[in-house]
Specification:
The protein has one helix at residues 104-107; strands at residues 3-7, 10-13, 18-25, 34-39, 46-51, 58-60, 68-73, 78-83, 92-97, 122-127. The protein is globular. With 128 residues, it is mainly β. It has a six-stranded mixed beta sheet, with no helix packed on it. It has a four-stranded antiparallel beta sheet with strand order 1-3-8-7, with no helix packed on it. The longest helix has 4 residues, at 104-107.
Length: 128
């Protein structure tokens, strides 16, 4: 049974940093790209960053480029999202998921509803 668990969220002040983790079990982890999304209250889910199977390639949304870094440790079946200089507008529930076919090359274009293996999300709240 596939299980995905996001963790590492919390309440922080503006300018702080957090590192989110996405741990997967019950599936072959290293042969799939992984993607982070977030959803703020009243807004649609937003693509943030994606990473290839090996971790050699990454792609970021303009809204987080330069502040967020996606990485992975295939030995630990875990993907990370390092978030620096957090802003109140970063407040959201953060999720990780697998793009269609686990394919990095389409991850930034694929619609959200084509993604698979969603976790329950982790809440990040940034106070001003």
């Amino acid at each position: 049974q596939v299980q995905v668990v996001e963790s590492g969220g919390g309440l922080v002040q503006a300018g702080a940093s957090l590192r989110l983790s996405c741990a997967a079990s019950g599936q072959t982890f290293s042969d799939r790209a992984r993607t982070w999304f977030r959803q703020a209250p009243g807004k649609e889910r937003e693509f943030l960053a994606t990473i290839s199977r090996s971790g050699a390639s990454t792609y970021y949304a303009d809204s987080v480029k330069g502040r967020f870094t996606i990485s992975r440790d295939n030995a630990k079946n875990t993907v990370y999202l390092q978030m620096n200089n957090l802003k109140p507008e970063d407040t959201a529930v953060y999720y990780c998921a697998v793009p269609p076919g686990g394919d990095f090359t389409i991850a930034m274009y694929a619609p959200e509803n084509s993604y698979d293996c969603w976790g329950q999300g982790t809440q990040v709240t940034v106070s001003s």
